[in-house]
Amino acid sequence: MATMRALRIEELGQPNKVLEVVDVPVPEPGAGQIAVRVLGAALNFPDVLMCRGEYQVRPPLPFTPGVEVCGEVTALGQGVDHLAVGARVLGSPALPSGGFAQFALMEATDAHPASAALDDAQAASFWIGYQTSWFALHRRAALQPGETLLVHAAAGGVGSSAVQLGKAAGARVIGVVGGAEKAVFARELGADIVVDRHTEDFVQVVKDATGGRGADVIYDPVGGDTYDRSTKCIAFEGRIVVIGFAGGRIQSAALNHALIKNYSILGLHWGLYKSRIPGLMGECHEVLSQMAQDGVAVPLVSERVGLEQVPDALQRLGDGSTVGRVVMVP
């Protein structure tokens, strides 16, 4: 039986403590699945939470994390007739056979063509963040040209995609980051105004930049105190999109405040669209792929790491010290 190298988790804990490189059998695709040779696997915050056992998806132990890949199709499962061996695809692997390995499994319906405009590391970073931001900004918040968009964690995985998509939509983008290095990165992404939360008050910056009106749309993957303060600078009829709670505290919304200031609080659970509106993710991917071809939606990959370096890199991502996208490449 052919074997491969993969990161595996035998017990839950911090990524740098529980992830180990092991030799395991190369997975065989089941009905409706494909096997791919991993060309790139992006590191995401859900991978950190999965290692800790704190994510809503909890694969049975042992498992290989890695929720976002670009790969070359090597085998087709029964019933798969719309893909060919050798095709370059991207998407989310089928856990417990995740992307931090030499080979991974994917549901054939979750595999999408990888744009030739993106290299393997960029393509591996293109699925979750850009889909999340497109649905958040366009499907949920209906962002309009000329509006002001405030993006928290603007140098992070999903935040960086929101900056680019916000600019592409014709919005004025204010990015909030933590530290000078991340501020440089956010400017490179195209943010019009960058706020270093370590040295500046984003509430005051937003008010100053908008003549006291506030941001029309606030993109919040952080939650907690960040959300609480965002309500201080949301515009009349503004929209706050709740993406996640990377800050660690799930906030409670003061609905009387939303009523008095006439703003909306919108939730986004991107994964639900797969079952609720089949085909919509594929349509979104076509739009985003064209944007990648046009050069306006291209992930900025800051680090390319090997399989052995993933545990440390995931730990740094979880600690909030990474900048941009970090991708495992062979």
Can you put this structure into words, describing what you see?
This protein has 330 residues and is of the alpha/beta class. It has two domains: 3-126 and 299-328, Medium-chain alcohol dehydrogenases, catalytic domain (Quinone Oxidoreductase, Chain A, domain 1), CATH 3.90.180.10; 128-271, Rossmann fold. The chain has twelve helices and 15 strands. Helix 2 crosses helix 12, helix 4 (128-140) packs across helix 5 and helix 4 packs across helix 11. Residues 13-328 form the Enoyl reductase (ER) domain.
The CATH class of the largest domain is identified as Alpha Beta
- Rg: 20 Å
Oligomer: single chain
CATH-scheme architecture of the largest domain? Alpha-Beta Complex
Mean pLDDT: 96
Structural class: alpha/beta
- Biggest sheet descriptor: 7 strands, mixed
Question: Stretches where pLDDT falls below 50 for ≥5 residues?
Answer: none
For the record, the count of structural domains works out to 2
CATH topology of the largest domain: Quinone Oxidoreductase, Chain A, domain 1
- The CATH superfamily name of the largest domain is Medium-chain alcohol dehydrogenases, catalytic domain
Strand content: 25-35%
- What is the straight-line distance between the termini? 22 Å
User: Helical amount among residues, as a percent range?
Assistant: 25-40%
Element-level helix/strand string: EHEEHEEEEHHEHEHEHEHEHEHHEHE
GO molecular function, one term: quinone reductase (NADPH) activity
EC number: 1.6.5.5
Protein name: NADPH2:quinone reductase
Domain Enoyl reductase (ER): 13-328
